[in-house]
Amino acid sequence: MREYYAAPMEGLTGWRWRQVQSALFGGADRYYTPFLSPNANFEFQTKELQEIDPAHNQGLFVVPQILTNRAEYFVWAARECQRRGYGEVNLNLGCPSGTVTGKNKGAGLLREKDILRRLLDGIFDALPGMKISVKTRIGWDDPAQWPALLELLSAYPVALLIVHPRVRTEFYKGAVHRDAFTWAQANTRLPLCYNGDLLTPADTAAAPDVPLMFGRGLVSDPALLRRLRGGERATVRELEEFHDALYATYRRDYSGDVPVLHRMRELWNYLAGSFRDTEQLLRAVRKARTCAAYDQAVRQFFARAELA
Ligand SMILES: Cc1cc2nc3c(=O)[nH]c(=O)nc-3n(C[C@H](O)[C@H](O)[C@H](O)COP(=O)(O)O)c2cc1C
Fold it and tell me: CATH says 4-228 is which class?
């Protein structure tokens, strides 16, 4: 049976989301964490420690993702993950954000082949016993860069190459370059995973026959994988329950209303996609500046909401 993976999404698919999504809708075959960013301190931030705390990931197949351009930082972080029981770690070669690429990290490495080669040499030399997967785009600013990039990556024993077939300058917009993925299937021996714009069961039916990774589609519809496995769509009540459970974790763990509401607004940017004609109904939810106002707006929303 084809495997379905949950994409790393900073601010969205952290451990609280994974717990609630898997408990209510059945888990993904693997979850990739939003990126951890090791640095010269050789210490994870509190938020990162929570992300990889085995107690927060019990019963799930979780792969920590690491964003860096320095092999020694990656190797340190990978060993910290290994010590906690993780058998695979993932290298981020896709993040398009200017603050990341400006430091030659994420997709920034796709235009810095020498730094990338040094990074990969250092990683694979130091960690022969560990599964290292890579999540990449197909180039910096031109899909024609893909063959050379794929050749470079194919020289390493990458456990899984997750390909988002866009270049960095396309961010997450425009049509994906399916032909670039097809080209990879014919031109590398590395195991491949496809990621990009899989929003519905129909998109998935037309996708390449490899493990598939879901990002925005799964955050918009947390029951998407259940549907793909032949189960029912989420009902409004189930989505309300999902919302309430996730909201409760943020209220439990964050101090003050502002960070809680920030997280929830981010979630609504996607979850809104599950519902019909949401703009009017969601206005009060988006405008709420206190949790009390938010609670009231959300109850009204769910009382009237209809599925898309
Ligand atoms: C808000 C947001 C945060 C993301 N964070 C990460 C991240 O931490 N690491 C990563 O590799 N990709 C990250 N991505 C990219 C997704 O993992 C995925 O590749 C992208 O959304 C395309 O897949 P989709 O069309 O299924 O959403 C992020 C994307 C978005 C929109």
Answer: alpha beta
How many helices and strands, by DSSP H and E, does the chain display? 14, 9
For 274-285, what is each residue's pLDDT tens digit? 999 888 889 999
Confidence of residue 240 (pLDDT cuts 50, 70, 90): very high
Assess contact for 256 and 223: CB atoms under 8 A: no
Question: Cβ(228)–Cβ(204) under 8 Å?
Answer: yes
pTM of the model: 0.98
* Ligand 1 neighbour 105 (Cβ under 6 A): no
Residue 9 Cβ inside 6 Å of ligand 1? The answer reads yes
Q: Report which of 121, 97, 95, 98 is spatially closest to residue 106, judged by C-alpha positions.
A: 95
Quick one: tokens of 54? 């085995």
User: What's the burial of 126, exposed, middle or buried (CB within 10 Å: 0-12/13-18/19+)?
Assistant: middle
Q: Give me 9's structure tokens.
A: 């999404």
Domain ranges of the chain: 4-228, 236-304
DSSP-H helix ranges across 104-220: 113-126, 146-154, 178-187, 201-205, 216-220
- Separation of 8 CA from ligand 1 center, angstroms? 6
> Rounded to the nearest whole angstrom, what is the distance from the C-alpha of residue 296 to the centroid of ligand 1?
31
Q: What is the pLDDT of residues 258-303, one digit of tens each?
A: 999 999 999 999 999 999 988 888 999 999 999 999 999 999 999 9
Binding site membership of 216 for ligand 1 (Cβ less than 6 Å): yes
Q: How many CB atoms lie within 10 A of CB 148?
A: 11
